[in-house]
Design goal:
Chain lengths: ~210, ~120
Amino acid sequence: MFTAGIGVLLLAGLMAPTAATAAVPKADAGVVKQIDADTKSLTTMSRIPTEAQRLEGMKAAQAVEAADPQGFAERVALIRASSKTMAYLKSFKGLDLNEQVVILASAMPTDALTGFTQLVQAGGIEFKVTALRNSWFRSEMIVHEQPLIQPQDLGSLPRCPSAWAAFWAWFAVNAATCGAFAPFPVAAFACAAGFAVGGAIIDFNRGC
Amino acid sequence: MSNKSRYWFTLSVLLAAVVITVGFAPVPLIFVLGGLLIVGFIAAGMLYGQFQKDAIRSGALTAVFPVIAAIVAFNLALLLRGNAWAGILVPVLAAALFVSCFLWSRKHGPYVPPTSGTAA
């Protein structure tokens, strides 16, 4: 379901450089290819936008920003924090990167963009952009479905070094605090139980 | 069964119950059950008359092994939440904590008989 959602999301505009400014491909413009059981690719063609299209795109982005400045800033920060998303946007040579970021931030709701940047960063989605003649680009989006399924089976288990670091920091604080009550086991057990229950709302993988 | 054995049996059951709760209970139920279990630990201490300042200060009630075992087991249960293997591993962990704490307490478990003014 998530993969299907991403597919719709991307077809809705992400495959285009600067979403709005470069010629936005239509939903039926892509060529879908099944690479293997868990990997699909979607290839679309797009071209560098004209000055009029670029201005129109920026105007639309400014309208979105004016309607929700805080959400817009949050989306821009999300994009800039994702090195792989930034690399994807940079791969369209000849386009202004800041405009790319602004227009992508205006093209998607925050939740969708969060999921998208996380997937790109985790390697669930890869992009390959090739510059063609006459200001055209070929963009290939490769979707790996396997990584989307595996994390659910792992539950709360840390999935990256920063998650393990967060867990061990939590464990150290827990042990140091509750271990101090060892002379009175009842209090130490109550303390440890409190920490464990509180830990249930901590997402150690948030930093991954 | 002596008072000491009953006291440590109660604590061991509560420890296993915490592991099960942390491993399986969804939010927000985990907070309700966790709160009840914390109250349970305190109540067990009071019921068996273990709230004795002098005994605590002198270290007569110190129990390092079950405290460390509980902290480790609770955190393992925390890591297993939502895991595909939780259905098997969490009950095993709870049983291991219960058995190890109860068996340890039979030989090493600290217990100070209640004095006048303390319960049981």
